[in-house]
Design goal:
Lipoprotein-release_system, MacB_PCD, about 550 residues, ABC transporter permease, alpha+beta, Alpha-Beta Plaits, six-stranded mixed beta barrel
Length: about 550
């Protein structure tokens, strides 16, 4: 006990050699450790809080498991009878709710300003989805925001869209379906084609020639051999009927094909009524009388209803984040179905779980319980890249900022080397008086331990204090025009943080051990010095 007291007493003596309040060397060493621990504690808590907040926001409106019907591999089929499947899914253990899933793109128009927007359909009967959107509403910049969309053309938009179009609660915007443009292009391609009598003149001439030739008579019916049937039927069906042509012209070709489909079967060919040949020839002759301008006018008239936009009212604005992909617009399911061109059908089943972190197990259970062709996509798959990015960022931040503590430890080691050199005469005297090498080592190790303990304790305490008042610090920085954590980018007015005690303890203990080791190295060499050589300098 005496030896320990001797080493510890001398360590305190060396830390404050001038009997002042604090030694400058001691203060500098403690400050280095303090800053390293403080920065690590703050950064770890902020990164953990950011990941937690983004996941909670993402899970507020995103299905924990999305079920899609893919009977042909990678091609998703629309679901019309989705309610029956949703009811069956709700009965599976671990499932909280199941409803329709619908998302797509639309063209937003506000005062002749347009941009594409990603929208998500919301089943407003599902309270969990509505509550998830309500939790994200920006009541500060857009007071009165609501997620009560009902079944009307009322929508909730992101703060990014609101800022770009300078629109808020009560504003109106027009939504054009992206499917319209595909159909408009289809109509354009059809109306750009020449009439069938010109585009397929040789093929039609050959068909008329075959119809004009006498067919074999069998009683009161006409017989046409299989080879002749194929020569007439296949070109009309494959080369004309299956093409994108004008409906009136397609209907004429369809009538001819129908008459051939309804013919009676006979060995080696087909049997037709006596007047069928003349009727088919007369039908094909109608193609020579079609009016292209009238047909195109009828087609273009149908576009008017096709491209009419849906006018929607903004009832809420939510704070979007650049840290995660979120929809530009939330809208009621019926409106989403209409804009996606899937009236009555949906893209999949949105499943919410009691515990979203069991999504993989529940997804497998659901796929096994459903008929073949179903696929389950979990939120961890959709958020996987982002989670890995956050984890990598955290590790890189820890790695980079850990060098602050490492530099502090090296600085302390340099200070300890300097102290041992300055105290070499005293070390010689102690050894001459019988002090053991272990006692001398403990003198300087105790100094490092004291500095490491005080620095780690103060750094952890100040780090927790910074986290506690981070909102006030942000306001001070914003007051001076400096906002490194803009809410427009992060999606949070106050920088999120999550305190993980185990991480803080690891940082504090690591700092303490590094400082202790930094003091041990010079102490080890000092204890091995020759006492006689040290005393010669007295």
């Amino acid at each position: 006990m005496a030896r320990r007291s001797f080493s510890l007493m001398l360590a305190w003596r060396y830390l404050n050699p001038r009997r002042a309040m604090l030694s400058a060397v001691t203060l500098i060493s403690v400050t280095g450790v303090l800053l390293g621990v403080l920065v690590l504690v703050v950064v770890m808590s902020v990164m953990a809080g950011l990941e937690k907040e983004v996941k909670e926001r993402f899970l507020g409106f995103t299905p924990h498991v999305r079920l899609e019907y893919m009977p042909f591999g990678g091609f998703r089929e629309p679901l019309e009878q989705w309610r029956e499947t949703a009811e069956a899914v709700k009965k599976v253990e671990g499932v909280q709710g199941a409803t329709a899933f619908m998302q797509d793109y639309a063209l937003v128009d506000v005062d002749s300003r347009q941009r594409p927007a990603f929208f998500r359909g919301v089943d407003t009967d599902d309270t969990s989805q509505v509550e998830g959107i309500t939790a994200m509403l920006d009541q500060t910049e857009h007071p009165g925001s609501s997620a009560d969309m009902g079944l009307d053309d009322r929508i909730v938009i992101s703060s990014i869209i609101a800022k770009q179009f300078d629109i808020g609660v009560g504003g109106k915007m027009s939504l054009y379906s992206a499917r319209n443009f595909e159909q408009v292009k289809h109509v354009y391609d059809i109306t750009s084609r020449p009439p069938l009598r010109e585009e397929f003149a040789p093929l039609l001439a050959n068909a008329k020639e075959m119809l004009a030739k006498p067919w074999e008579k069998r009683g009161e019916q006409l017989f046409l051999a299989d080879d002749a049937v194929d020569a007439l039927y296949i070109p009309l069906y494959e080369e004309i009927y299956r093409q994108d042509v004008r409906d009136p012209e397609k209907e004429i070709i369809g009538r001819v094909l129908k008459m051939m489909d309804e013919a009676g079967e006979a060995e080696g060919g087909l049997l037709f009524a006596a007047d069928t040949q003349a009727q088919m020839l007369a039908i094909l002759a109608e193609l020579d009388e079609t009016n292209v301008e009238e047909m195109d006018a009828a087609i273009l008239k149908g576009i008017k209803e096709l491209v009419l936009p849906k006018e929607a009212t903004v009832i809420g604005v939510y704070q979007a984040s650049q840290m995660a992909l979120t929809p530009d617009i939330f809208m009621p399911l019926p409106l989403a179905q209409e804009l996606a061109g899937m009236k009555g059908a949906v893209q999949g089943i949105s499943v919410r779980l009691h515990d979203p972190y069991h999504a993989n197990q529940v997804a497998q259970t659901l796929v096994n319980a459903l008929p073949p062709g179903w696929r389950g996509i979990t939120w961890t798959e959709e958020l996987g890249d982002f989670s890995r990015l956050i984890a990598q960022q955290r590790m890189m931040m820890y790695f980079a900022l850990s060098f602050i503590i490492l530099v502090s430890a090296f600085s302390m080691m340099a200070v300890m080397f300097t102290v041992t050199i300055q105290k070499r005469r005293e070390i010689g005297v102690m050894k001459a008086l019988g002090a053991a090498p272990g006692q001398i080592v403990r003198v300087f190790v105790h100094q490092g331990m004291i500095l490491g303990f005080v620095g780690a304790l103060l750094g952890s305490g100040l780090g927790l204090l910074v986290i506690r008042f981070r909102g006030n610090l942000q306001e001070v920085l914003r007051h001076f025009g400096f906002d490194p954590f803009s809410s427009a980018f992060l999606g949070f007015d106050v920088l999120p943080a999550q305190i993980k005690p185990e991480e803080i303890v690891v940082v504090a203990i690591s700092s303490f051990l590094l400082c202790s080791f930094a003091a041990f190295v010079p102490a080890f060499f000092a204890a091995r010095s020759d006492a006689a050589k040290s005393l010669r300098n007295l």
